[in-house]
Amino acid sequence: MLNLESYWMPYTANRAFKRNPRIIESASGFYYKTRDGQTVMDSFSGLWTSGLGHCHPRIVKAVQEQVAKLDYSAAFQVSHTGAFELADKLINFAPPGFERVFFTNSGSEAVDTALKIALAWQRVRGEGTRIGFIGREKGYHGVNFGGMSVGGIPANREMFGNVTLPNVRHLSHTLDLEHNAFSKGQPEWGSHLADELERIITLHNAKNIAAVIVEPVSGSAGVLVPPVGYLERLREICTRHGILLIFDEVITAFYRIGAPFGCERFGVTPDIITTAKGITNGVIPMGAVLVGSNIYQDFMNGPEYAIEFFHGYTYSGHPVAAAAALAALDVYIEEDIGNKVREITPLFEAAIHAMRDVPHVIDIRNIGLMGAIEMAPRPGQPGSRGMEAHVKCFERGLMIRHAMDTLQFSPFLTSTPDLFDETFDIVRKVLDTID
Ligand code: PXG
Ligand code: PLP
């Protein structure tokens, strides 16, 4: 008998779960298998993590070999071959201009690392008054104090008394159903919302602001796609004021929206990129922060024996994670994942937008292989429809993700068209039963 009580589960309704547990025992390709033997199709690629499919043989083998060869190597003042190989491979995979990488173990750590790089960089170049950050409403940048501070999902802050970093301001989010409901891809309306950045800068003075951080596409809040021209404007304003632009690509990197990194899809180059998840296909935890060589070089002063950046994790560049990431990068390239994603994206778009006539649906949003179906909340019970849909889909053999009453989809990068049909067929049947 499995005791469910000891484990305090993350971001979970623990009591409801323990009354009606959904416990996965194994996975392969597009499917999970539960403890009681039910097969469940995964419409969310893990938690946006596993786009290449579960237990990809190439990555499994790389991890097995690595763990038997070098399990761990000290990470400070010493390193190992895999970390250097991976950094090099990742830089080749990254957009031009990104030449250095710092490893972390998660997206949350990547975000906090990026914020610290931004503060320290401004300081090493004599701009030490730049200690402020600008995030965005509905942004999700993980759960550590830095990420929580620049994040903009109220529930993630409220429970902690809004004890956040000082000197943080937020842009408005770009979700507007009145203008943009049922947009396919980037909405036309809303690029002017980027001009708020100029207003915040005027009020607080550019000399006090280190960096702006946004997700190119907000994921957790329910797939908020940037309006046409919006990211370009943020870029232009940051450049003009000497403010670093950080794109949090924990979800949008590794072909999720068709390009190796999301910024390439939009043709907008940030100064710093954070990523995680798909870097190892979710197999071993890992995150990364990418910067240009100019940022790195500005730290390389002082005596050569001295540490240049007082930051790092015990597991930065962990050998087993590095092996998983090296194998995942090979698979992304050798299996031509970019072309596959670009080929199936229109089919995904058609399949998800065909849900428009389903009861309670008030918006459908998508870009690349990210999609969301927003339902109207039940009066007085926000989130209850979403939860019910999640549980009922699972009972019918489909794993979906929901944030409040928004259902989210992150199909495998290697999905076949019939997977989209099966997924939305089940979702439709389930939503038809929900009052
Ligand atoms: N930044 C972004 C943009 C993210 O999406 C993080 C940082 C934090 O990463 P870690 O690895 O510390 O969790 C994330 C993570 C969902 C969902 O259902 C999204 C995330 C995690 C779990 C679920 O949308 N995003
Ligand atoms: N707490 C204590 C007491 C530690 O010794 C360390 C690392 O040495 C940490 C936290 C940080 O752990 P990590 O480097 O895995 O983030």
Mean pLDDT across the residues is 98
Low-confidence stretches: none
Give the C-alpha Rg.
22 Å
What helical percentage do the residues reach? Answer: 25-40%
Instruction: Kindly provide the name of the CATH class of the largest domain.
Output: Alpha Beta
* Main sheet makeup: 7 strands, mixed
Ends apart, CA distance between termini? 36 Å
Name the shape in a single word.
Answer: globular
Strand order of the largest sheet: 4-10-9-8-7-5-6
**What is the total tally of β strands?**
15
Count of DSSP-assigned helices: 16
CATH superfamily of the largest domain: Type I PLP-dependent aspartate aminotransferase-like (Major domain)
CATH topology category name of the largest domain = Aspartate Aminotransferase, domain 2
Name the ligand types.
3-[O-phosphonopyridoxyl]--amino-benzoic acid, pyridoxal-5'-phosphate
- Report the sheet-strand fraction: 15-25%
Number of domains: 2
**Class computed from helices, strands and strand pairing:** alpha/beta
CATH architecture classification of the largest domain: 3-Layer(aba) Sandwich
Summarize the structure.
Helices cover 37% and strands 16% of the residues.
Structural commentary:
By secondary structure, this protein is an alpha/beta fold. It has two domains: 14-55 and 336-432, Aspartate Aminotransferase, domain 1; 61-334, Type I PLP-dependent aspartate aminotransferase-like (Major domain) (Aspartate Aminotransferase, domain 2, 3-Layer(aba) Sandwich), CATH 3.40.640. 37% of the residues lie in helices and 16% in strands. It has helices spanning 14-19, 45-48, 57-69, 81-93, 107-124, 145-150, 155-158, 177-180, 195-204, 230-241, 262-266, 293-299, 319-334, 337-353, 384-395, 417-432; strands spanning 24-28, 31-34, 39-42, 100-104, 132-136, 168-171, 209-214, 244-248, 272-275, 287-291, 361-367, 370-375, 398-399, 401-403, 406-409. Strand 1 and strand 2 form a beta hairpin. The longest helix is centred in the N-terminal third of the chain and has 18 residues, at 107-124. It is globular. The two termini are 36 Å apart. Bound molecules: 3-[O-phosphonopyridoxyl]--amino-benzoic acid and pyridoxal-5'-phosphate (PLP). Residues 47-48, 106-108, 111, 140-142, 215, 219-220, 248, 250-251, 276, 401, 408 line the site of 3-[O-phosphonopyridoxyl]--amino-benzoic acid.
